[in-house]
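Worked example

This section walks through a single chain of length 289. The input is the sequence exactly as stored; nothing has been trimmed or padded.
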Amino acid sequence: MKKFIAGVILIIGLLLISGCQRNDRQTTVSSRGEQTTISTETLKKTATPTLFIHGYSGTVNSFGGMISRFEGQQLAKKELVITVQADGTLQVDGSFSHSNSNPMVQVLFADNTNNEWNQTDWIYTVLKYLKNQGVDQTNIVGHSMGGVSSLRYLTTYGEPEDAAKVVKLIAIGSPFNDLVDTSDEQTVENLLESGPTQKASRYMDYQNGVSNIPENLSILLLAGKLNETTLNDETVPTTSALSVYSLLKENSIPVEQQVYTGPKAQHSQLHENLAVDKKIAEELWEPRK
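Given that input, the structure is written out below as tokens.
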């Protein structure tokens, strides 16, 4: 009987130990089936918020899954939803705790099919609101048009004193060179080295305003391609999503890029891709080694 009780105690102890270990490391499965592990051992938690800005015709569901996954893994905490009305006024739900919780802010545009110039002004309005709330700096994660408008904000406004400073921008599947596909004329390697061979007016605007981007801002470009021979994510050409890489690098803006391949690299699936989750979490919340 004593041996039986001792065995039960041993099993319970092992279960408790394994449970504690699971709290130190979050493991998920990527689009290709491999394990995608986000370490909480090196997790850096601060009061710097991250804004999640949807793309053209986006809704609360656009980044809803990613935000929920980050919360479920205890990497960050959703604290605000800011809805920008068509007239530029803000509806704010929630409040800042100003604690080191890696706060997340979901930004929604009520007129979600408006143009990127108005969205740029709306982003400025949101950043001014954050400044008034005592937020000095913020990160931005933008999908598709959300990334386009965020970069346009930076090339237009730069670093205004009355707005929270953007320190990191992550753009997911953003058509920076509009829908121009230069893959028939150049390789991705050549694009990253020299820029696009054809330049849309949107790209030219970035080129003209790139000097306004703060040099200490870091940018991560995430792009998708359906397979090894199809250089687009079904909506945005891979070359367009990476088109500003060379421009930024030439102007001393720290920039990285990564391309994802497969069904989960489809345009509307990129923000549901667990490998993308991992990359974003590492960029935002894991200290540089």
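What to look for: The radius of gyration is 21 Å.
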